[in-house]
TrEMBL record:
Enzyme class, first EC level, given as a word: oxidoreductase
Reaction(s) catalysed (UniProt annotation): 6-phospho-D-gluconate + NADP(+) = D-ribulose 5-phosphate + CO2 + NADPH
Keyword tags: NAD, Oxidoreductase
Organismal lineage: Bacteria, Bacillati, Bacillota, Bacilli, Bacillales
Protein name (database record): 6-phosphogluconate dehydrogenase, decarboxylating
């Protein structure tokens, strides 16, 4: 089985390393694929080249516009794909775009799954990502063994776009939680408590969360290196807010989180992980 992978950034590089088989890779910046190439992956100059070689292609990109270009552009996957191929987009993107890609694929006999992931750099490295999938269920069943190589919690949610809607629910839960984590540490520090001991204690109780266990320790030592980039989180929150507006529902927690993250400088948004929100309180 020939597998392609496009998007070898913070998460994609680790995800691709677990897939094995014959791997064809592409990234806008070739240097970010260097470790995969050194391990035996074949470099491709474009998505078109990946489509020409691979039977199944994974993508994890930055923004919906990147996804659309990678799939439907002149050198795109669907544009240059062939019947019976399967494309799996792990980007957190627009549910409407997921439907558009699915329908475009159907016209050429290509199956497209929207399969956004959650778990950050740690989950990608340890192959313990949560994967939320939309598209044809028979296609999901077909690629499930591959998804097991990169994820631990893998679930099918329905027609195209369902995976993206599920990821929006995930990001909404994280958004308010990140504010709570930062405020908790800031409060404990302001009272003069041993913040590390506070964190150790509350993370084992009802306040426990993935963010509290994995990102709060980074906050305490001013480690703001990206496990998941802040500008990508802002993109996700904006998509969720746009979807909420279409459904005429109010999400005040998400709105506040977006507002606070958006006040960060452009430099911080582009270079740091989501735990940078602690700087707002410091």
């Amino acid at each position: 089985m020939k597998i392609g992978f496009i998007g070898t950034g913070v998460m994609g590089r680790s995800m691709a390393s677990h897939l094995g088989e014959t791997l064809f890779v592409h990234n806008r910046t070739k240097e970010k694929a260097a470790s995969l190439i050194e391990a035996g992956a074949v470099w491709c100059e474009s998505p078109k080249a990946v489509a020409e070689h691979a039977d199944i292609v994974f993508t994890i990109l930055g923004y919906p516009v990147d996804v659309e270009e990678t799939y439907l552009g002149e050198n795109g996957l669907i544009t240059n794909g062939r019947e019976h191929q399967i494309f799996i987009d792990c980007t957190t993107s627009s549910p409407e775009l997921a439907k558009k890609l699915f329908n475009a694929g159907q016209t050429k006999g290509i199956e497209v799954l929207d399969a956004p992931v959650s778990g950050g750099d740690i989950g990608a490295k340890n192959a313990t990502l949560s994967i939320m999938v939309g598209g044809n269920e028979t296609t999901f069943d077909q690629v499930y063994p591959l998804l097991e190589r990169i994820g631990k919690s893998i679930a099918y949610f329905g027609a195209a776009g369902s995976g993206q809607h599920t990821k929006m629910a995930n990001q909404i839960a994280i958004a308010s939680n990140m504010l709570g984590v930062a405020e908790s540490l800031y409060y404990a520090k302001s009272t003069g408590l041993d913040v590390e001991r506070v964190l150790e204690t509350i993370s084992k109780g009802a306040a426990g969360s993935w963010s509290l266990s994995n990102l709060a320790p980074r906050m305490l030592v001013d480690d703001f290196a990206p496990g998941f980039y802040t500008h990508h989180f802002l993109k996700d929150m904006k998509i969720a807010l746009e979807e909420a507006e279409k459904m005429n529902i109010q999400l005040p927690g998400l709105s506040l989180a977006y507002e606070l993250y958006d006040t960060l400088s452009d430099a911080l948004k582009q270079t740091t992980g989501t735990q940078i929100i602690y700087k707002k309180y410091q």
